[in-house]
Amino acid sequence: MSGLIDSGRADLRAWGRRHAYGLLSSVGTLLRNPLTSALTIAVLAIALMLPLGLNTALVNLENVHDSLDRLDSISVFMDLEVDEEAARRIASQLSSWRDVLAVDPASPAAGMRELAGATGLDAADVGDVPLPWVLEVVPEQAVDTAELAERLGRVERVDMVVVDLDWVRRLDAILEVFGRLVQLLAVLFALSVLFVISNNIRTEIERRKEEIEILALVGATPGYIRRPFLYSGLWMGAGGALLAWLSVHGALMLLRGPVAEVVATYGASAQLAAPSGEMLAMMLAGSGLLGILGAWVAVSRQLARINP
Amino acid sequence: MIRFEHVAKRYPGGVQALSDVNFELERGEMAFLTGHSGAGKSTLLRLIAVLERPSRGQVLFDGKNIGRVSNRQIPRLRRKVGVIFQDHKLLTDRKVLDNVALPLLIAGLSWSEIRRRVRAALDLVGLLDKENTRIPALSGGEQQRVGIARAMIGKPPVLLADEPTGNLDPELSAELMQLLCTLSELGTTVLIATHDLELVRRLGRRTLVLESGSMVDDRAGGQGS
Lengths: 308, 225
Description:
The complex is a heterodimer. Chain A is built from ten helices and four strands. Chain A is of the alpha+beta class. A four-stranded antiparallel beta sheet of chain A has the order 2-3-1-4. The radius of gyration of chain A is 33 Å and the shape is elongated. Chain B is an alpha/beta fold. Chain B has two domains: 1-80 and 156-225, P-loop containing nucleotide triphosphate hydrolases (Rossmann fold, 3-Layer(aba) Sandwich), CATH 3.40.50.300; 89-155, no CATH class. Chain B has seven helices and ten strands. A six-stranded mixed beta sheet of chain B has the order 6-7-8-3-9-10, sandwiched between helices. The longest helix of chain B has 16 residues, at 170-185. The two termini of chain B are 25 Å apart. The relative contact order of chain B is 0.20. At the A-B interface, helix 1 and helix 8 of A face helix 2 and helix 3 of B.
């Protein structure tokens, strides 16, 4: 019994050593061909940079979008007979609501100027169109604007509530499309990682055909022969992911200044969000797995040809 | 140890390499396999190392029909057969040490154990000082001896040699034969394919003669000098 356990342990140790030899062999191959390895990793990094860069842009746009939401305002049109005093009274009443940040009453004269400006006509040309008092209500952040608009509509002497959400919705929709595009691109470029690594390993196998044959001749199992190539695939995939992540970080560093200037013209300040450490972990794992998979496909095809 | 029963091998394309070959080698027996080139010597060796499968008949290895084993079992069988190839089959971009170590790396031995056994094997074939030399820097005869060291390092029960003395001078080939004789005395079954009839005659061992794929003679050895 103890003999059995001992031999089990010895088997485990032998298995561990075989893995270690495979790992060392893959590192040796990478180091023996530094230029080829570097080029492959660069190609993979470029392929991964596009979806990662777009995703980073998307994350930043969403941040901007969130801060823009605050700028939505609701236009509350009062009945025509509401005079200035009444309008200001209702305005101060509304501004005490918990989900209202500010209320800005606009007089009919101001409305006339705006209308004239928008149509390109003189105030005199527009003539004597009766305009009501309008209260511009700015909601607090993260308030359901549609629900607030409905409640505002029920307030006495309110004629009509207009929520100009069109452009926010449009931006939402555009971001949605953009997000979907990033996902599609990510799938596409993940496939390209798979193919690049698979093709690279295939070339490597072609170059080491003799070695594979010799290994098989002296009794190496397909697993033993496959292992160094799988490790190579892992190194290339993970290396490409790391380089892509670092490159996007570098690009953001270069963009930081100009973007801050653009943001400043809007009187706001925003921080560019860089891809997170979680993203790096995800990419390392994903790209590494793709590398292993690509290598597996390439090696299995070759190994199938060795056995009689 | 090894037994051929009505073995025939026909390659795709219609070349009949072997037809109805029968013989048996006992454990620890040493024998020569002779015949003109193209007589089927290499094919016969390849069948024992499971590099080919017979078209007909059975090849029994330790009682097991190795022509019918699954692909999964082949590596395990190959580790029991050390093969000295005519064209050496060495990893030309590696050092002597790495080449000889291969079977032990595959077996998963510890590096210190591997080093020890590689040095012992290289000592046996007289290449101890070439441990860290790369293969292309070696002469043909030295490369042949690296192949021999690799074939025997795993202590396989069966050793096959395809023209092992082809590149060796008479003195070295005599030494090699002496080594193979010693191994067979220690229990290794040794089969040597050669057309060096002078060598065969001198050693006076059992000799199998192939001619156009048929076994035409099986002379028992006289155990001469």
